[in-house]
Specification:
With 441 residues, the protein is of the alpha/beta class. Helix content is 36%, strand content 26%. The protein contains 14 helices and 19 strands. Strands 7, 8, 9, 10, 11, 12, 13 and 14 form an 8-stranded mixed β-sheet that branches. A 5-stranded parallel β-sheet has the order 6-15-16-5-19, sandwiched between helices. It has a two-stranded antiparallel sheet with strand order 1-2. A hairpin with a 7-residue loop joins strand 7 and strand 8. The two termini are 55 Å apart. 32% of the residues are buried.
């Protein structure tokens, strides 16, 4: 019996970077095709970010729909490192009935700033060799036996200790499902137990229900550095919950976080950084359809760019000259001119037929679709005539149609049938014109 494996790929899961080698863009590289000029400009932006030269600035990606603006923003984040937070937001998402627009933007910005915390803690770590539990009567039910103490023997490759433990500690061991042969870690500040897995070679089973781990070496009691990454928004939420009296009684979270809480978090993070306990990971806040923001949001962004704790802000728009939302002013891309002056503007262009073919090949490989040469040519034709997005969207339906016909590859016939079933944007407009009288006004 074969097991079907569920796999999910996103539209841009194939993007690994900008595809730049020695400062020059490859024709095809890291999942990107073409757009050499835009990718070289993005690479220069990455160098500016690494050198700390982006303070008070942002990036604006402009170009027709389907020309890789989102892919370019993701590639910039990938170039900055795997730990770089990447937050994507559509301009229309700021209009919430529950929060102010500035609160939505602030949360997005703070989710895009990571804090890598380094912490040294005293621990005990080893494989459980033996557990002896001492039972006693329950204080409120003399007919029930409960753990009141015991001993536990821990061992590493080089050390072994037998420890006397309290009843509460034994109960935590039992609650965590710890048994002889497990590798555990004990935090000596909180005395919490963490079960790490089953020690290799500790039992009669070839396969366990949990992962197996190596037996630790060295001393049982040691000091270890723990590194974990959180965002400023995570810290905001933690401090906000701790500071809300109502949440203690009702468990309700405040809809908005107060400036005082965020100020305390900023001060704490700055002290960690100054003390060498943490480092900041400025990420990327990508706002697509930025023309959907209004004049108040644009004003907020202009000021936020100058903040000490600000992510790299990348905006994208496919609009030409249009009104700034909330005003009667017509401006390029629907953005105020004073904000445009703060932005490094990168343009994208339409893909050629050959570039569309290469992108479709990459997407087919990512989605595990085998395309015949005639199917690829047919899809490329739809990409040129309609749009790249439409051509890419036809591949999965065409694969299902080909599978129904027991074909090993997607051919042009399957692509044509998929195109008949699923209309393109221009096909939908044509249908509306033909059936205009039948539709409600």
């Amino acid at each position: 019996m074969s097991l079907a494996v569920f796999e999910r790929t996103s539209v841009h899961s194939h993007i690994k970077g900008l595809g730049i080698r020695n400062g020059k863009p490859l024709k095809i590289g890291d999942g990107l095709v073409g757009q050499e000029e835009a990718r070289k400009a993005a690479w220069i932006v990455v160098q500016m970010i690494r050198q700390g030269r982006m303070a008070g600035r942002g990036v604006l990606l402009v170009g027709p729909p389907g020309t890789g603006k989102t892919a370019l923003a993701i590639a910039i984040a990938k170039e900055l490192g795997e730990d770089t937070p990447f937050v994507s937001l559509s301009g229309s998402e700021i209009y919430s009935a529950e929060m102010k627009k500035t609160e939505v933007l602030t949360r997005a910005m703070r989710r895009a700033i990571g804090v890598r915390v380094h912490e040294f803690r005293r621990i005990m770590e080893g494989v459980v060799k033996k557990i002896d539990v001492k039972l006693g009567s329950h204080p409120y039910n003399p007919y029930q036996q409960i753990p009141v103490g015991g001993t536990i023997t821990l061992a590493t490759k080089d050390d072994e200790k037998t420890l006397r433990v309290s009843g509460d500690f034994v109960q935590e061991l039992l609650a965590k499902g710890v048994s002889e042969g497990d590798v555990i870690m004990i935090d000596l500040e909180t005395y919490r137990v963490y079960r790490q897995g089953r020690a290799k070679g500790s039992g009669d089973y070839d396969i366990y229900g949990t992962r197996t781990v190596e037996v630790p070496s060295g001393s049982i009691e040691k000091e270890r550095e723990f590194v974990y990454t959180v965002t400023l928004h995570d810290l905001d939420m933690m401090h906000s919950r701790a500071g809300s009296i109502l949440s203690l009684f009702f468990g309700a979270e405040e809809k908005e976080i107060s400036p005082e809480v965020r100020q305390r978090v900023d001060e704490t993070v700055k002290s960690w950084v100054d003390g060498g306990k943490a480092e900041l990971l400025p990420g990327v806040l990508f706002i697509d359809d930025v023309h959907m923001l209004d004049i108040e949001a644009f004003s907020f962004l202009s000021r936020a760019m100058e903040s000490e704790l600000a992510p790299i802000i990348i905006l994208a728009s496919n609009r030409g000259f249009t009104k700034i939302r909330g005003t009667d002013i017509v401006s390029p891309h629907g953005l105020p001119r004073d904000l445009l002056d703060r932005l490094l503007i990168i343009k994208t262009r339409q893909y050629t037929r050959d570039e569309i073919k290469e992108i479709l090949k990459i997407r087919a490989k990512e989605d595990k679709i085998e395309l015949s040469e005639d199917a690829l040519e047919k899809l490329a034709g739809y990409g040129v005539k309609e749009s790249l997005r439409y051509a890419a969207q036809l591949m999965i339906p065409a694969k299902i149609i080909a599978q129904r016909e027991n074909k090993s590859k997607v051919d042009a016939v399957a692509v044509e049938e998929a195109a008949k079933l699923f209309l393109s944007m221009s096909g939908s407009a044509k249908y509306l014109r033909e059936m205009e009288e039948a539709f409600l006004k």
